[in-house]
Design a protein that fits this description.
This protein is of the alpha+beta class. It is built from 10 helices and 12 strands. Strands 1, 2, 5, 6, 7, 8, 9 and 12 form an 8-stranded antiparallel sheet that branches.
């Protein structure tokens, strides 16, 4: 009897548990909740996990002793992202997994958010003395605001139109702030110093700062162009008839012989456009200066696309350290308040020749140190 009672009790418990499980399963199906199987491994972007890049650190540079510095020259350069060699610094325009553009990396490293509580400092000048706040940094990306009218609506939210004209009724205007995207950064200014180290008997160069330049308006590398409003044409009205030439008939009847002098209307002098920092119709707006030694750890953990071997991608720190970019000299340190080349040379070709002259001067100084 005891065994029979135990069997009956066990069967009742099993049937109750089965019915309870069926009830929970039916409720989950009705609510759309399903248990997904555990993943075999964590999803990654590639076939293998890139541990080397994740744990990568900047290559330590040779320490410099002031006593051994024989010669030094401070140079400002411009990296134009429209050049083919500099395209790895521009693309991708949108983040592709772990692959980000250099401008996007700067934005994420400098912008103070919950995911980035310790942002990299950015400075307003190339002397790294006045840091920018996060609000000032975000304000650098603001472009011309857009004015949008506020339309009158009824209680149901429908737009109200004027009974006479049929046009929507405006009750005012609102200003909508517009912000540029990191893909609109198409130029970088870098500050670097050339020096001759007697301890190593070599000419070396160290980058000191990087400044992204935002270009507003015009077209980007993908051909996107901001639509400009069509020019308004004033149709002729009856009140303002076109002006008639009083002397048209008089000069039409005159006959001139060869050799007779005639008075010509002088052509208007061409207007000299104001020298504005523009490239392809885009106004240049510097964002701020990043101190290069402080920014190197971030650059060393972000890869750059390699057109020759995709398995061996370099980092942004490798790009600048190995100088795999194309640039031209904008200015050198001088007694005239460090003036730039375009301040005293107007012609573009002459500016390039002046930049090459500065580059050749540094090369000659190193070359003349040796005897052959």
């Amino acid at each position: 009897m005891k065994k029979l009672g135990l069997i009956i009790t066990a069967s009742i418990i099993c049937s109750t548990s089965f019915l309870f499980a069926q009830t929970i399963d039916s409720e989950n199906k009705q609510s759309g909740v399903f248990e997904s199987p555990d993943a075999i491994r964590k999803p990654i972007d590639r076939t293998w996990e890139k541990d080397i890049l994740r744990d990568n650190t900047p290559i330590p540079l040779q320490p410099i002793d002031e006593e051994y510095i024989h010669y030094a020259a401070l140079i400002w350069r411009v990296i134009d992202l429209r050049e083919k060699m500099n395209l790895p610094l521009y693309f991708p325009t949108e983040t592709k997994g772990n692959w980000k553009s250099f401008a996007r990396i700067i934005w994420e490293a400098v912008d103070s958010t919950e995911n980035n509580p310790m942002p990299i400092r950015i400075y307003s000048t190339e002397y790294f003395d006045i840091p920018l706040s996060n609000a000032e940094f975000r304000g650098k990306f603001s472009i011309e605001p857009r004015i949008q009218p506020i339309w009158l609506t009824d209680e149901e939210g429908n737009q109200v139109f004027d009974e006479e004209t049929g046009e929507p009724i405006s009750i005012g205007d609102t200003t909508i702030m517009q912000f540029a995207d990191p893909k609109d950064i198409m130029q970088y200014d870098i500050k670097e110093e050339y020096f001759v180290d007697n301890q190593r008997s070599m000419l070396d160069v160290r980058i000191m700062g990087i400044c992204p330049i935002l270009q507003k308006g015009g077209t980007d590398l993908l051909g996107d162009e901001e639509e400009a409003p069509p020019a308004e044409e004033t149709p002729p009205t009856e009140e303002t008839p076109p002006a008639e030439d009083e002397f048209a008939d008089e000069f039409a009847e005159d006959e001139y012989t060869e050799g007779e002098l005639t008075e010509e209307t002088p052509e208007p002098e061409p207007q000299v456009e104001e020298e504005l920092p523009e490239v392809s119709g885009r106004k240049l707006a510097p964002i701020g200066w990043l101190y290069y030694p402080e920014f190197r750890p971030v650059m060393a953990k972000n890869e750059v696309f390699n057109t020759h071997n995709n398995a061996n991608r370099r980092t942004y720190d490798d790009i600048f350290l190995q100088r795999h970019f194309s640039s031209f000299i904008r200015a050198e340190e001088n007694v005239y308040d460090n003036r730039e080349i375009f301040f005293y040379i107007v012609n573009g070709l002459d500016q390039i020749l002046e930049a090459e002259k500065i580059k050749h001067k540094i090369f000659e100084y190193e070359h003349n140190m040796w005897e052959y």
